[in-house]
Specification:
Layout lengths: L8 E3 L4 E6 L4 E5 L13 H20 L6 E11 L6 E11 L4 H14 L1 H6 L5 E5 L6
Parallel strand pairs: 5-6
Antiparallel strand pairs: 1-2, 2-3, 4-5
Helix pairs in contact: 1-2
């Protein structure tokens, strides 16, 4: 198959300033490590969580043929790299399926994680973990 979609993003300011998508979205970015950060800004941790939650849940919805509600919750933590220098993301992803048994939810997670492009990108990372959890309506 050929290319289905292409986008381009640029950041000229680093962790504090603006990042934007060509001909589209522009967001204020603010490093969580900056004591003077803009409280209205976002950061790579939040953007990674949003991107993966959206992609994985869209894929989960395709797996269940949109016959059940699904939800994806992602926790991203920034840690010091061991050994240093720098940092590492520790990511825990939780998928839930309304009305599903633990086994059914695991089947949906396995299928969605195998198909989701962001999951594929992150596969093999030792600091990324996926789990199921009970579905909560809100």
């Amino acid at each position: 198959m050929g290319m289905r979609y292409r986008t381009e993003a640029i950041n000229r300011d680093g962790g504090n300033g603006v990042a934007s998508v060509k001909d589209g979205l522009s967001v204020t970015v603010s490093s969580p490590l900056n004591p003077d950060r803009d409280p209205d800004g976002t950061n790579p941790e939040q953007l990674l969580a949003l991107a993966w939650a959206t992609c994985l849940n869209s894929t989960a919805q395709a797996v269940v043929s949109r016959k059940q509600h699904t939800a994806v919750r992602i926790e991203v933590e920034l840690h010091d790299a061991e050994p240093g220098p720098g940092y590492v993301f520790e990511v825990d992803t939780y998928l839930s399926v309304e009305g599903a048994s633990a086994e059914e939810a695991q089947r949906v997670l396995d299928a969605a994680h195998a198909r989701c492009p962001v999951s594929k990108l992150l596969s093999g990372a030792t600091t990324v973990r996926v789990h199921t959890e009970e579905y909560a309506a809100s």
